[in-house]
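CO-FOLDING WORKSHEET

Operator: S.A.
Ligand of interest: pyridoxal-5'-phosphate
Run index: 315
Mode: holo prediction, single chain
Checklist:
[x] sequence pasted
[x] SMILES validated
[ ] output reviewed
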Amino acid sequence: MIETIARVRGVNSENILPGGGSSDLIFRSLRHWLGPESHALILDPTYGEYAHVLERVVGCTVDRLPLSRRDHYAVDLDRLAAALRDGYDLVVLVNPNSPTGAHLPREALESLLTGVPAMTRVWVDETYVEYAGPGESLERFAARSENVVVCKSMSKVYALSGARVAYLCAGAHQLEALRAITPPWVVSLPAQLAAVRALQDPDYYAARYAETKNLPREVRRATCLARRASRTGHSQFHSRPPAHEWAGRRDCGPPLPDAKPVPARCGFDGDANGNPRRAHRGQGRGDERAHGPDISGSVEERDLNRRKQREQRFD
Ligand SMILES: Cc1ncc(COP(=O)(O)O)c(C=O)c1O
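OUTPUT RECEIVED:
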């Protein structure tokens, strides 16, 4: 698996350190590199595991670079450049960021990171980088650099979350000490096979990324159409208004051939006004936080529903 990752990413095997999901790498590396006396910088908001591990597991001081909704959560490069010169032990950049989706283009980020003092390690989490387009990863740059580490989860963009596969890509000198504390077979054989197979099929995944990128637009359109359908007496979210009602609907863009599969694919269950009643296909705890727990039906029915949804996701 290491050799395949290295070949596909254009780096050497010594630049790759595998992990049982990136959570394993986050816990293992940050605990190894940092202590309670360390100082780290994270974006705010960003993927919550970083604050948890740094503050609660490592127990170090964490500063936050606030991102504002008004600016669409864009990371201000000048502010980031200034913060990178502040002598942090570790700076964590999730790029594209989660949950905001804001992305720093590779070229801009590389030129910014070139000037970072060697004492500051920069951890770039590229879990979602494929959604930003091809050629946006900093893996090759990290392999050549003194202090940049790319953390790549294969959970999301290769749909392998249950398999638990991830890796770090960095200069060999940065990975040496971590390699010594990595257990043999940290990624199981079935997971390695799945990862290798996934990496050998870039065209399949490129088509999936294009689909995913398009999904929010499709959902917006479907919701828009559902609202219109409810105003015009077509009260079921899943129903399709007659063809003449599509005419002249500039605000919804060109008509979809059939809006029905779109909300179903997203697990969207809307009321007559196109408002969500309940989202079925979320990501467990986060989804329940966003929409409230599913409290309909008996406990057994809910368990059965959840199992069915999980199975559908794996299909
Ligand atoms: C930005 C980011 N990094 C890392 C992870 C953890 O992924 P893994 O399944 O590889 O532990 C997630 C999972 O949601 C994530 O969103």
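REVIEW:
Strands lie at 16-19, 39-44, 61-66, 90-94, 121-125, 148-153, 166-169, 268-270, 276-279.
The chain has twelve helices and nine strands.
[x] output reviewed
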